[in-house]
Amino acid sequence: MNTPCSQQSRPNLPPVKLTRNRTSPLPVPHHLPKQSLQKFYRLLLPNLSPCSLQSRCDTMNEDLLERFRRGGRGRRQQPVLDVWIQPQQLNLRVREYLLDASRPVDGGAWLRRPEIPSASEVLDTDVSSATSSDIVEIATNRPVGPWDSKESYLSAHYELLREDAVRPLREAVSQVRITPNATEDAFGGTVGIYEKVHICAITCSSRGLAVRVTFSLRRTGKKILWEQSKRLITGSLVVLTPAEDMFQKTAIVATVAARPLEGLAMNPPELDLFIARAEEMELDPAKEFIMVEERSGFYEADRHTLLALQHMMREPFPLSEHLVKARREVLPPQYVVDNPVYDLTSVLRNNKHETYENVHILRGWPSQPSSDLDASQIAALHRILAKKLAIVQGPPGTGKTFVSVQAIKVMLANRKHNDPPIIIACQTNHAVDQILRHIAAFEPEFARLGGRSKDVDIIKPRTLHRLRETAESQTSLAGSLYPISRKKMREIEKKLALLLSPLKPSKIPMDFRLLEQMGVLTSRQADSLEHGASKWVQEELSHTAEARTSPFRVWLGKNLVPVPVRQQAEEFGFEFEEADLAFEQLRELEAENVTKDDEDYETLSGMTYTLADNFTGRKVAGVTNDKVRAALKEQDLWKIPETIRPAVYRHLQREMKSQILVEARGNVLKYNNLAIDRRAGTWERDETILKHQHIIGMTTTGLSKYRGLLHALQPKIVLIEEAAETLEAPVTVACLPSIQHLILVGDHKQLRPHTHVKSHEDKPFFLNISLFERMVNNQVEFGSLAKQRRMIPEIRRILQPIYGDLIKDHPSVLNTANRPDVPGMGGVNSYFFTHQWNEARDEHMSAYNQSEADMIVGFVEYLYFNGTDTKDITVLTFYNGQRKRILSALMSKEHLRISGCRFNVVTVDSYQGEENQVVLLSLVRSNDNNQIGFLGIDNRVCVALSRAKCGFYLFGNGMLLYQNKTWKKVIDIMAGKKLKHERPQLEPMRLGEQLPLKCRNHNETVVTKSADDFEGLHGGCQLKCKDILPCGHRCKLNCHPFSHEMFQCGQVCGKPLPCGHGVCEQRCGRLCECKTCSKPKPSMANTLGQPEHLQFDGQERLSQHSRGTSNSDSWKSFAKEEHERYSLAAAAPPPRLREVEDTTQLLDITNNEAVVEHVSRMTVADVEESGEAKARAKDFQIGLDGSRSKTPSEDNSEEAEVSSTGMCEEKSYKEVVTLPPRGAAQGQGKFEKEDWSQRESLLD
């Protein structure tokens, strides 16, 4: 047995056995004395305070005494795990990967292309200056057939992908060069143009050195909702050019480093940029640039894939026999050949448990095992486990993700102790989180790379950022690049701070001694400037402190002028640009594109150095550069004529900036290279965390972005979900040298991958053919899932033209308990409403059909009245223009909006993998040119037809679509025509120009031909309801399926008044009041008691300026003043209660008070007893006029005092918020953005 002394004397100690208890976050060595324990914890936690160290060791010794007192090993508190703590070993594969990238390799010119497009590539000078023999045509993809070689395959995909990424920006630059003064509207909203761009600061961040710029939004002509705009998102590619050049000769390519919302909200807005090449870095705050962005493209998504394709020429290419040579027969992965016996009990069941414990999956796969999987899923599971290139096709609803999860479960059950993590990648962040949630149910050791998960309970704690925070060992990794590179970066930051000091904001002009040190002035010139040439100058220098520090003040006199603010605040009225994305969607997109996984995509952390010119010389006409250079030959600067001195000062400024810039560019290059080393160092530390994980999930973009880190982990298995929706190149780069097993799960019949340039999807490029589809086209082995668990048979049959007889129904969809009929439709759960309403185009050239949109909105309202929650209804459309109009029309339905309804209105392209109970499909296209656009693409049609579970309703021009082969078959099926395939016989036929509805109360069929037919239709038929309401009146609504408690009777009360003065003339449900007895309160009715000077005179002012427009000065002045008043409403004092006569008064522009209609119905006794009215937040009813009111059940009828006539004596109160007078606080208060952004987010 070793003693502590012998342990200390031995140079190489064996690892110390540690246990970790639930009550202790750190491992506990159970055999070390107190002194050794202190040394141990100092090594493990160098930042632990002495007090904490002493306390931890005392606790440990008490535990030891207690154990020995019991005469045994003692009881441990439920040990979680036992580990052997050893010093972390540095994995050198990360730096080897990065060093490999800089090593020259034999091959074509594509291998030497830069990571970021060059200026010549963006300006297209390479092509315009080349001869016809020099221009190389872009290679095309090969949907069928093998490639000639590894390089021909990789180079073709590199050139295609790069052209697809760069071409939109190149065309945008070309358009701006041709029409330099055009606004954004001239380019249809696809080009972002930002003028008056000035550099205002630089930031030294961990990701590299960035420049901060201010810019003008004048050419947008609108305010930007940055929280929901795709403009200038992190990772976007932009091009800058000097304002006087306008892309004739000069272009500076940059990427958006960060877009902090507080910076963009400034006026003018600010933004951080990474300049692509250090030699193009600019620092002059006086220089003005134009910045251009192509808004439809997104280079960052392809940037890392392009680098990875180049790197693959430097390493072995596993699976190339299939990916390059298109070999059809697929063999097992090598690790399965070495160990083919698997335990399948995690997914297969049997009375004899041992039957599936040792299954030779290459020779003895069970024939008919008992499992939750159907036969096709079990066959797919076998394929996934036993083929090194496993391709599984899953039609809609067949359980693709479920099979993937079961395969992962089997792999984890059979993994060896030292096996590397399994990599799972999906096209979207949503899909990644979804599959990881399934895996988390049985595997806690998983990690999420990249993205921004909204799942705070399951996924968020397993992000790499969080795992870093909770890592057990916080000690630095010996030999890592991280501390070395960080130290060197700090040294360069100090150099830059000193170098840029002449450009920092200051109240004095340039330092003439600094100009001397830089060689801009000679020593004699600097001395002459300081000492002067006459006695009065010396006296001036001795009296003024500023003059002593800066003789330029005296030398220039009035010709020294402060530099004005580069850009003034801009006003755009109240018009906002339309939102592109919901806030959360945008944050996800940005988070996915930052280089580091530490959630720094919103702000760029690091030292920031503000740059400014401070002072300059007054511009003087007629002074040439030759005159300035001749003047500077004079050694006594006081002999230079005063008329030339301002130009000399400006020349000295330019020379100083030029020298600073040269020196700065060299430091920037070093700094950015060190940032790469620092990232490598971060990955070296991350590798020590991730190597212990069993599963690592990311998007397909992450496969490229984290490829160096994945290379260090040496994974064997990669599973790609949504593989048929992903471009080939991002999947190809997953083939790291260590990969033995590639699993592709998807459906090539559904959506194909997206390209930035639409022409690249067609012949001859075929860029949107995925690797999944290409392998199927080449007849490489693949399997298919067959039983769908989503759609009722009535809907599933519509997919027959696409899948034939491949899809079968699972018993679960035949059960009406699982798939009930759509309420109010009388068993008609699918229908094609055909019309001939013409389409139109919006300002972005997106198709829409207003009549069709109105019809759909009326139908949504009808379904809602019949009890279908709006969250269970999805409206799909192929066109964004139609999506906007449908959503806007739904939002205009007040009773839907005030009921808190949320609407699912989305485009088909964004809905793959999703489903809902009821789906309404808006087809839009209806024209005389027989053009159907996206509707002619079978992949998109397949997605659109397969999202509904219980009800599916199509709206479109059936006559136009009937000319398309696929749609003809769909329409024939819905029309009930007898076809060769087997299908349910349905009556009536599911096609017509009238949409049949079914009244649930009277069993009457109601037909609707247009949106007008839904007017007055409250979910039933046209018969009158006539039921007696709780108030005693008859219901005047048409037949309706919902309860009478959902609306407020609006008829005249008509009950006798207790005072005997006739009957109540108020509306039912309001205060019963006698007009003879009550005293009029004109001041309340009109101004609610406000002083006269606070009364709003907007009507008078508007009439005076009735000819003004939103751009006129009078309107801007009026609007700004009123906007500021209403902006302060949120900060107003708590509301007080006032009694008012008429509770129907709404907020009126002629009042100076915002009346918030929180109508609380209280008895007089209640108010007098409590001394105050207690506000009650209640649900509201739908009135006959669509207004809100409380339900009768909410009124405390037991407490209300009822008179002998049965009248409830009530008084109505309103909460009144008094606004400050106009002009009382100019410029104070902030616009409440939350309400606006919430409403705008509903429009996407």
UniProtKB/TrEMBL annotation:
Gene3D superfamilies: P-loop containing nucleotide triphosphate hydrolases. GO terms for biological process: regulatory ncRNA-mediated heterochromatin formation. InterPro entries: DNA2/NAM7-like, DNA2/NAM7-like_C, DNA2/NAM7_AAA_11, P-loop_NTPase, SF1_C_Upf1, ZNFX1. CDD domains: NF-X1-zinc-finger, SF1_C_Upf1. Pfam families: AAA_11, AAA_12, ZNFX1. Residues 1-29, 1167-1244 are annotated as: Disordered. GO terms for cellular component: nuclear RNA-directed RNA polymerase complex. The keyword ATP-binding applies. The keyword RNA-binding does not apply. Keywords: ATP-binding, Helicase, Hydrolase, Nucleotide-binding. Residues 1-11 have a biased composition (Polar residues). Residues 373-755 form the DNA2/NAM7 helicase helicase domain. Residues 768-957 form the DNA2/NAM7 helicase-like C-terminal domain. GO terms for molecular function: helicase activity. Residues 1230-1244 have a biased composition (Basic and acidic residues). It comes from the Eukaryota. Residues 191-294 form the ZNFX1 domain. This is AAA domain.
